[in-house]
Structures are given as structure tokens and as C-alpha cells.
Automatic annotation (TrEMBL):
InterPro entries: AlkB-like, AlkB-like_sf, ALKBH3, Oxoglu/Fe-dep_dioxygenase_dom
Gene3D superfamilies with a match to the protein in the record: Alpha-ketoglutarate-dependent dioxygenase AlkB-like (2.60.120.590)
Keywords per UniProt: Dioxygenase, Oxidoreductase
Domain of life where this protein originates: Bacteria
Pfam families on file: 2OG-FeII_Oxy_2
Entry's Gene Ontology molecular function annotations: dioxygenase activity
Protein name (database record): Alpha-ketoglutarate-dependent dioxygenase AlkB
Domain Fe2OG dioxygenase residue range list: 104-201
Organism from which the protein derives: Kaistella daneshvariae
């Protein structure tokens, strides 16, 4: 008997055109997801995120943590930062995601949303130090949240619910043709941690 019933087919492309998005469903049991959530909540190197908006540095209530194969510098939201070396549990999780997806990753961004009032506006993960058209694997822990895509040209909009312990992978031309975001929701009262595994160019 499979661990999860009605498991989606990860080979199905959720996008109608201009990219590839695959949803693997729950890759962790409820117990595994809860234990990992609590571990990261307590032990990750959380910092309030800083972004540049209209030429001003804004500190968000949402918190982030960055980990990588080495202490590489990276640029995120037009601000240069330095990642820290993997926590053992993150390295184990990276290896699991790589086996499932057949992709390679050398860094991960963690986002902590304390409740539904915190979200993320439409954007593309297209920083210059991310390898072009490489896969970005998004693992969700905690509160289930709506995740949206919007085509940059047609404005077509797609919505999905990302469950606790589930994995979604964006690859190919997705970042060039689609925006994605996490809409706020007053109905969500519990926290969510999102991990996005990425392949960054260490020479950039």
C-alpha cells in the first residue's frame, strides 16, 4: 500500500505552455513534515528579509535563511548576502529531492511565513546567479497555502494548493514566461516554512 492515496503524477506539466511545473504531492509523511518543521523553526539561521523597493531598503516581517554547498555570496532582491553551510537535515532533504527529481542543487532558500497575513507578490526567480532554466524545487511545511502563477504575456492565471510535506518543481522556461506568488489570506492563522532548492552559479 502506498503511503499516500491519490498521489499526483510528477510527469504531468501543470502549465499549458511556456514552461514546466511538476507537482509531486506529499513526499514526507505527516510526522516527518511536522518534525522537520519544528526542527527548522528552532534551528535555522532566521533573519528578517531585506528587499529594495523604489530605491529604499525594506525589512519584512517574513524571515529567511540561506544555505549552500559553501559560503557563497548571492544576490537576492538586489541585496548581496552570504549563505551558510548546510544543516545536516537540510543536506539529507536536498539529497532526497535530487533523487526524486533527477536534478542537482547547491543552495536552498528558506522562507518563514508566520501566518496568512504574510505572503509574496508576483515575481520570477530569475536572479543572474541562478543557472539559466535550471530547476527550482519548492518544498512546503506547515500551513497549506494557495500558490499562483500568472503568464507574463497572456496574463493567464493558475492556482494550486501546496500541502504540508509536498514538493513542486519549476524548470525550463518557466521563470522567463511566468510569475508566481503566495497571496495573503486572513483565514490562515498558523505558520508555513517553504524551502526552494536552487542551482546557483558559484562564479557569479
Amino acid at each position: 500500500m502506498e503511503l499516500f492515496e491519490h498521489q499526483p503524477d510528477p510527469d504531468d506539466n501543470l502549465l499549458p505552455q511556456d514552461g514546466i511545473v511538476n507537482y509531486y504531492g506529499k513526499i514526507l509523511s505527516a510526522q516527518e513534515a511536522t518534525e522537520l518543521f519544528e526542527n527548522l523553526l528552532q534551528n535555522a539561521a532566521w533573519k528578517n528579509d531585506e528587499v529594495m523597493m523604489f530605491g529604499k531598503r525594506i525589512v519584512t516581517s517574513r524571515k529567511i535563511a540561506w544555505y549552500a554547498d559553501e559560503e557563497m555570496d548571492y544576490t537576492y532582491s538586489k541585496i548581496k548576502k552570504t549563505a551558510t553551510v548546510w544543516l545536516p537535515e537540510l543536506l539529507t532533504l536536498k539529497n532526497k529531492v535530487e533523487v526524486l527529481t533527477g536534478e542537482k542543487f547547491n543552495s536552498v532558500l528558506l522562507n518563514l511565513y508566520h501566518n496568512g497575513s504574510e505572503g509574496m507578490g508576483y515575481h520570477s526567480d530569475a536572479e543572474g546567479d541562478i543557472m539559466k532554466d535550471s530547476a527550482i524545487a519548492s518544498l512546503s511545511l506547515g500551513a497549506a497555502r494557495k500558490f499562483v502563477f500568472k503568464n507574463k504575456t497572456t496574463k493567464e492565471r493558475l492556482e494550486f494548493i501546496l500541502e504540508n510535506g509536498s514538493l513542486l518543481v519549476m524548470k525550463g522556461a518557466t521563470q522567463r514566461h511566468w510569475l508566481h506568488g503566495l497571496p495573503p489570506s486572513k483565514k490562515i492563522l498558523t505558520p508555513r516554512i517553504n524551502l526552494t532548492f536552487r542551482l546557483r552559479d558559484p562564479t557569479q
